[in-house]
């Protein structure tokens, strides 16, 4: 299900749509919080996304099966971090925090990619990037503490906010490890990682249901949410992002991810009735300011 042909040569449109779809994922997860258990939501999302993408990727998968077998280890690690752990933890966090907070904190993602790249591959960070990281970190602390630093001193943080930060850190690890992935065709890579990620989720889904998690009766809204998370953030966003990177390169594509919190906040206000507070606005300015400062130096690897 690739983007329509007329969009194939428009990288800025494709990357903007990527951020919009991923922002909508957080808002959708918040909208169905309490109606669909978070791990089960991730399981449904990736299982059905795999079935859809498999239809289009089958020929590529058959051709590249030997390569997949040789690199099954790194593909499993990428699936565990980018599919299983990140999305499940993000959905869980949305049961305990607002969609605005969750999307705002995604602005630190490109900076965390830089940190993981330094830790794993010794890619040096410039002074400008370090300053940007610290500035963005200050913004995150303001957001999660609701502007009250005493909450930090007393460790009275919202567990949903903390879970969102951890989820973003896991996704940053996934992004940093992408360079170790095999050179598969985009459809093959997406199908394999989604498929492995869905399988790895099965024991966690079973444990969640055995612990007593239940579904609310499905209605038009929850069904629409399921269709959205299967198609838009799971398949179309990845295909749009991959094509955009192919056209203009990862370093120029990376800053488009900073549109996620902006789109997310707007969608949360429009569809969820959430209202941003002063501390969230200040935190967002610091987070985005830190990203801008860091990106003006040596680009963070995407």
Low-confidence stretches: 297-302
Q: Biggest sheet, open or closed, and with what strands and sense?
A: none
Q: Total number of helical segments?
A: 13
Strand content: under 5%
Helix content: over 70%
How would you describe the shape?
Answer: globular
The oligomeric state of the chains shown is single chain
Measured on Cα atoms, how large is the radius of gyration? 19 Å
Q: Care to count the β-strands?
A: 0
Element order: H for helix, E for strand: HHHHHHHHHHHHH
Task: Spell out the key features of this protein.
302 residues; mainly alpha; 13 helices; 75% helix; 0% strand; disordered C terminus
Describe the structure.
The protein is mainly alpha-helical and 302 residues long. The chain is built from 13 helices and no strands. The protein has helices spanning 11-31, 38-70, 72-93, 99-104, 109-121, 127-144, 149-153, 159-177, 186-210, 220-248, 250-253, 259-272, 278-295. The longest helix is centred in the first third of the chain and has 33 residues, at 38-70. The protein is globular. The chain starts with 10 loop residues before the first helix and ends in a 7-residue tail after the last helix.
Fold topology:
Layout: H1 11-31, H2 38-70, H3 72-93, H4 99-104, H5 109-121, H6 127-144, H7 149-153, H8 159-177, H9 186-210, H10 220-248, H11 250-253, H12 259-272, H13 278-295
